[in-house]
């Protein structure tokens, strides 16, 4: 269970006490504030706080005194211009603070994004919960035969059962030992900071993660991408929905220019120009490696 009834009651209490503010408010984000959105079997994402909205981006770009909005169309056009031309600092004026519960092996990928502020649940101070990520059957997949960094077909039948049994059994056994080691029942008991080293990477951790919109979009570009590992992608997908409601113009521009767009090398651009002139461009005469050629075809075919 991602959150307990007591935790839900705390969230409900926070949402039941609105306050007046002079600050910029995004109605779309207000609807999400504090709510926990489940991800994977025990994880969640929830917004703790945010700063700014679409018009804050325009206000910063224009370095204006007031609201900064000339008209809604103007704001959307400006945001699209900024995104298109990599004028990124106005997007840094918006911030998002999330509370995330995630498996440790996902946290290891996530923490590589250095341009955020993080505070993680302390397993030196506190005892970790008995919560382990066990993949759903459709995600219990074999190693991909075409991509060393990916998965292929889902395991089925006895093979799937065998793997699930190992995952569940190891998690239960290592947690039993964790409890046994830290127990001070008539013994000294091992320090929590040491006992945790025996726990597997599918145990859940939690953190507060604060990031500005520019770096958040960079994170989403990489982690909501189809090449990202499923277990981090589902978190990124959930965050995408929040961002779409928080800063709809910025998110739309991001979808258009970053998620849906593609960067072409000079060589690839040359191939496209030759194709437009009617030349038959092939893997042999494109002047690029086989892999680059394949990737260009993927971009052009959609
Ligand atoms: C599909 C995929 C596969 C990956 N595989 C591996 C892997 O096999 N092994 C592995 O180790 N990592 C891997 N990574 C992690 C990847 O190399 C990056 O570390 C991660 O995506 C964070 O990206 P970033 O550095 O751009 O983000 P951030 O750390 O948030 O940085 C954002 C931007 O800030 C700038 N910046 C931040 N810090 C510095 C700095 N110290 N010096 C200069 N510029 C800085 C850079 O412009 C950077 O792009 C993988 C990532 C993806 C998405």
Percent of residues in β-strands:
5-15%
CATH topology of the largest domain: Gyrase A, domain 2
Mean pLDDT: 92
Helix content: 40-55%
Termini distance?
A: 38 Å
Indicate the low-confidence ranges by residue numbers.
none
Helix and strand string, N-terminal first?
HHEEHHEHEEEHHEHHHHH
Oligomer kind: single chain
The largest sheet, given as strand count, sense and whether it forms a barrel, is:
5 strands, antiparallel
Shape, please? flat
Ligands in the structure? flavin-adenine dinucleotide
Tally of domains? 3
Counting DSSP H or I runs of 4 or more residues, the number of helices is 12
Q: Determine Rg (CA atoms, Å).
A: 24 Å
Spatial order of the strands forming the largest sheet: 1-2-3-7-4
Class by SSE composition: alpha+beta
CATH architectural name of the largest domain: 2-Layer Sandwich
Number of beta strands? 7
**CATH class bucket of the largest domain:** Alpha Beta
Structure description:
The chain is α+β, with helices and mostly antiparallel strands and 302 residues long. It folds into three domains: 5-133 and 203-259, Gyrase A, domain 2 (2-Layer Sandwich); 137-201; 266-301, no CATH class. 45% of the residues lie in helices and 14% in strands. Strands 1-2-3-7-4 form a five-stranded antiparallel β-sheet. The protein starts with a helix and ends with a helix. The mean pLDDT is 92. Bound molecules: flavin-adenine dinucleotide. Flavin-adenine dinucleotide is lined by residues 112-115, 215, 218, 222, 227-228.
């Amino acid at each position: 269970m991602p959150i307990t009834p007591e935790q839900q009651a705390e969230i409900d209490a926070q949402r039941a006490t609105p306050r007046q503010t002079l600050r910029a408010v995004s109605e779309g984000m207000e609807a999400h504030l504090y709510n926990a959105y489940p991800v994977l079997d025990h994880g969640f994402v929830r917004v703790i706080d945010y700063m700014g909205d679409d018009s804050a981006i325009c206000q910063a770009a224009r370095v204006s005194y007031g609201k900064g909005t000339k008209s809604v169309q103007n704001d959307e056009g400006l945001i699209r211009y900024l995104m298109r031309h990599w004028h990124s600092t106005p997007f840094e004026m918006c911030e998002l603070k999330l509370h995330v519960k995630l498996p440790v092996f996902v946290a290891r990928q996530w923490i590589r994004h250095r341009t955020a502020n993080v505070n993680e649940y302390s397993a030196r101070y506190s005892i970790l919960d008995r919560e382990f990520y066990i993949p759903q059957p459709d995600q219990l997949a074999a190693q991909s035969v075409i991509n060393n960094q990916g998965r292929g077909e889902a395991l089925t039948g006895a093979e799937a059962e065998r793997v699930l049994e190992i995952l569940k059994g190891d998690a239960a056994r290592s947690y039993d030992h964790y409890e046994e080691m830290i127990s001070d029942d008539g013994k000294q008991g091992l320090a929590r900071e040491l006992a945790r080293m025996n726990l597997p990477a599918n145990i859940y951790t939690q953190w507060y993660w604060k990031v500005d919109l520019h770096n958040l979009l960079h994170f989403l570009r990489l982690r909501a991408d189809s090449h990202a590992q499923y277990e981090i992608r589902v978190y990124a997908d959930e965050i995408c929905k929040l961002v779409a409601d928080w800063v709809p113009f910025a998110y739309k521009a991001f979808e258009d220019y970053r998620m849906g767009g593609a960067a072409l090398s000079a060589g690839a651009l040359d191939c496209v120009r030759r194709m437009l002139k009617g030349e038959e461009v092939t893997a042999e005469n494109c002047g690029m490696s086989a892999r680059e050629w394949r990737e260009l075809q993927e971009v052009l075919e959609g």
